[in-house]
Specification:
It is a single chain. By secondary structure, the protein is an all-alpha fold. It has 2 domains: 132 residues, no CATH class; 52 residues. The chain is built from 8 helices and no strands. Helix 3 packs across helix 4. The longest helix is centred in the middle third of the chain and has 39 residues. The radius of gyration is 19 Å and the shape is globular. The protein starts with a helix and ends with a helix.
Length: 187
């Protein structure tokens, strides 16, 4: 039954989320917590791994969660579930592209979806950020913990380097190296 649950859960997430993997994150978090599949901390670890591995974020996170819950068959069910809606929708859109391209209705829908996608991504940032930076709740003392300070410094360094157009792969490697060093030295 877990296979059907994984497929159906990720199918619904894939069907009703516009904007890619980050927009899916609040729905994935809600589904995982509702089913009691993973703790928020475990989900955060999966998000970090999904971000660091090649491929689309939504496919990676679905694969990891499915694998954690039910091995290789579970990962196949979750991955198929999250990919199938997009695949079918793209086939339909490709078939009708000429009619959709000039449609004012479609243009209006896409204009309306953009703020919703930004809101979903913002929600994921706030939820995950609260869990990572303030696991004991938001208090003045939380801003002075080594974990918060290290995170703030790494974020600031990466923001400056990203602004200076440093290659994303170098940013990921440098962030990982700084995080590992901080983990050994400070935390």
């Amino acid at each position: 039954m877990i296979f059907l649950d994984l497929f159906w859960t990720f199918f619904k997430i894939g069907l009703f989320t516009f904007g890619g993997g980050y927009a899916m994150l609040p729905l994935i978090q809600a589904a995982v917590e509702a089913h009691g599949w993973l703790s928020t901390e475990s989900l955060l670890n999966f998000v970090a791994v999904s971000e660091s591995t090649p491929g689309p974020f939504a496919v990676n996170i679905a694969t990891y969660i499915g694998s954690e819950l039910a091995g290789i068959p579970g990962s196949a069910c979750a991955t198929l579930g999250v990919v199938l809606p997009s695949f079918v929708i793209i086939l339909i859109v490709a078939r009708c592209f000429r009619r959709f391209r000039a449609s004012r209705v479609v243009a209006g829908i896409m204009t309306g979806l953009k703020p919703a996608v930004i809101g979903l991504i913002g929600s994921a940032i706030l939820t995950m950020g609260r869990t990572v930076l303030f696991p004991g709740g938001i208090a003045a003392a939380a801003f002075l913990t080594p974990a918060f300070l290290v995170t703030a410094v790494i974020f600031a360094v990466m923001a400056v380097l990203a602004y200076r157009k440093v290659h994303p792969i170098l940013l990921i490697c440098l962030s990982a190296a700084l995080g590992i060093a901080a983990g050994y030295l400070l935390l």
